[in-house]
Amino acid sequence: MLNFIKTFITMKSIASLLVCLFACISLSAQQKDSTGKTVAVKDTGGSFVRRMQAFAKVSAKSSADDFAADKAAIAQNRIIDEIKKAMHIAKVYLSTGIDTLGTKEQLARIERDFTMAGDGVLTNKGTAQTFRNLTATSKILTELLSKAGARKTKLDFHQQQLSSFRYQLDSLLSAPDLFKFSTDSVVLSKYIGQIAVLAHEVHPVDSALKQAGNNVQSLLNQVNMLVFRLQTALEEIQLYQKDMAGNTFKREFNNIWESPGHYRSFKEILRQAEAKGLLTLIFYVQNNTGKLVVLLLLVFASFFYLRSLKNIYRENGLLTPDLEGQLVLRYPLLSALIIVVNLFQFMFVSSPFILNVVFWTIASVSLTLIFNKFITRYWMRVWLMMLLLFLVAAFDNMVLQASRTERWFMLIISVTGTIAGILVLLKGRKQELKEKLILVAIGFMVLLEIGSTLANVLGRYNLSKTLLISGFLNVVIAILFLWTIRLINEGLFLAFSVYTHQDKKLFYLNFKKVGTKAPILFYLLLIVGWVVLFGRNFAGFDYIVDPFKDFFGRERTIGNYTFSINTLVLFIVIMTISVIVSKIVSFFASDQHFSTGKNDQEEKQGLGSWLLLVRISILAIGLFLAVAAAGIPVDRITIVLGALGVGIGFGLQTLVNNLVSGLIIAFEKPVNVGDIVDVDGQGGIVKSIGFRSSVIATWDGANVVMPNGDLLNSHLTNWSLGGNRKRISIQIGIAYDADLEQCRQLLTELLNAEQRVSKNPAPVVQYEQFSSSTIDVKIYFWTKHLAEAYATRSALIVAISNAFKTKGIVIPFPQQEVYHHFPDKNDETGRAL
């Protein structure tokens, strides 16, 4: 606007000047002589045009310079604002930047843990490496590498941000428009002052960015070096592990009776094992806190269910003194611990040995308390001996570096286990044993302990230690798993014994085949779990499992969709679990066993009304989790939904109508589970409300499967919405000579005396009309429950009849009096009739 005004003023001045000049030219061209006549003069316009052209050039240049100066001023103001904004953002980022002191402390901790983890593997190696030491060190270094990598990522990002701020400031400060100076000395002076202030503000920010960048780069160099050392150490450990897996039977030490080589102090070895074990456990717990929380929640849920089941059996006097077949109910908390811990431990992938020992110890102690006074004293001693040997062997297995002291200790344990196992197999009271498969595990233990003894004597330390822990672990795990299966089977059998109303449409187990003995599938899963836990102790187990992991985890492509077998299996498993959980919830929630109070039927109906929504929620959550776990792209789901829409348009209208009707019933609740209804003259009780159809149990004993669309669109009569009451009427005819007030009083007394008649609203006795033979009286009353309506009416009819007979009130038969009239045969006119 300012430039426009300046230009306008300039053009107006030029126009005025031109007008004046043209006026002068006209006057000079028409000069008069001394006689008064006009005299023509010589034309001098050529020089004037040249002067005007020169004036126009000067004016145009002046205007262009003014416009360029104004444009430069606008650009300079914009750049200065951007510089100030960039400085403000940089200051804020610097104030909330990376914690340099915290980073140095973390690097120091990683360095300290690295030094500790490398003890016995990278330093103080000893004569030979041990499998357990390599495994523990590998887990620690992997975690340290993860932490160092995370810190490196943060430092890289921070360095990029600092560099970005400096680059932004440098590019703004070197913009050409900043160096376009005005020819006006006053404007130039003000601008130079503004630039000086800006330079004074930018300098400390630029210096701080530069200093922060140098500090970050210094830390980044340390982290990069640490990451490189960790990666190198891990590669070295992997080479050790690969060599050990290929040389399982290789001798590491001299025979046990020969003179030992150089060994560290046994106390130092124990301190090293303790430090590594605790560090491994801490790292793993930090990374799997969510799984541990889920484990605890499952334990509490199982405990609550088993305790409720035990209360049911206690209230009904169903508990047996010896708890045979009911052992799962003896200590609900201990049973929950055994079942959940033994099953859920497989969710902890690559867990450290010390965590597994904690799980096995918890389950074993719980099983010991359950065994008390349940199994015979002999087998209780055998179990305690096996458990003690296992705990001792587990403690030895956590010792990470070899020593002569440990080798003698291992020899004593293996020989003790061998002798104990042989004695149990030869002289054990097998007839008292409740699970015969335990003998197979003990026999296998004897073979492994003999192998451990021979390997130890002949200097095969790693093989001996692996066989030692595997032998005792095999017995303890076998016993834990066998009794876990037994407790699960007992829990299912006991539950389905009290929840007697099994519905194949909801959930059904045939305990004619399952109940006294666990299904074979449970034992197959037991064997798979035993193989996994047993195989983890061997150095070559990972190399055997890796091809299978690669096969199931390898990505495959169909069109544009990439998947793996693991993701497909995970999708199917999650959806299967969702369906099973929804059916189990429906089964237990719809069972009538929990009815213990007067309002239980109403509570059951209230619960039943939400079953469909609960099932839909469970399946929806399961589908969401399955899609997310399988990594199915959303656009693929959109294509499927589009195809489904086409299918709906062609032939699935009825199905979709029933599904939508099911949702409407679930939300609007015109009918609930347990309601007494009449649908087009078909009466019964609503047994279940499904996604597509509902089941109505009729009074004739049949189950009518009615599509939800028909149920919603029919003329539905819901007696339960009115409180399950029904009004009944009885009409009676009494004789004309009866005492009407006495009759009313008698009927009122009979109605009040009947317990099944509701007193609110009160019964009504009402005289209707004079009939041909009787005076009609009609009584109206409400029954407390619909199911008692007709029985109540029948009982009242009998009572009324007896009372009327006692009081002499007659209920006359329908009758007519016919009078025969014979007049004279001839009428008054004399005509014959």
What does this structure look like?
The chain folds into 6 domains: 2-31 and 40-73; 76-246, no CATH class; 273-553, no CATH class; 554-632, no CATH class; 641-719, SH3 type barrels (Roll); 725-807, Alpha-Beta Plaits, CATH 3.30.70. α4 crosses α6 (266-287). The strands form 4 sheets. Strands 8-7-6-5-9 form a 5-stranded antiparallel beta sheet. Strands 10-12-11 form a 3-stranded antiparallel beta sheet, with helices on one face. 65% of the residues lie in helices and 8% in strands. It starts with a helix and ends in a 26-residue tail after the last helix. The longest helix has 62 residues, at 185-246. It is flat. The chain is an alpha+beta fold.
Q: Which key features would you list for this structure?
A:
3-stranded antiparallel sheet; disordered N terminus; 5-stranded antiparallel sheet; alpha+beta; flat; 8% strand; transmembrane; MscS_beta-dom_sf
Shape: flat
Indicate the radius of gyration in whole angstroms: 49 Å
Stretches where pLDDT is under 50 for at least 5 consecutive residues are 1-43, 500-515, 591-608
Number of strands: 12
Mean pLDDT level? 76
N→C terminal distance: 131 Å
Backbone structural class: alpha+beta
Q: List the domain count as a whole number.
A: 6
Q: Helix proportion of residues, in percent? A: 55-70%
Helix tally?
Answer: 23
Portion in strands: 5-15%
What's the story with the biggest beta sheet? 5 strands, antiparallel
**Strand order, sheet with most strands:** 8-7-6-5-9
Membrane topology: Multi-pass membrane protein
Signal peptide: 1-31
Protein name: MscS Mechanosensitive ion channel
Domain Mechanosensitive ion channel MscS C-terminal: 728-811
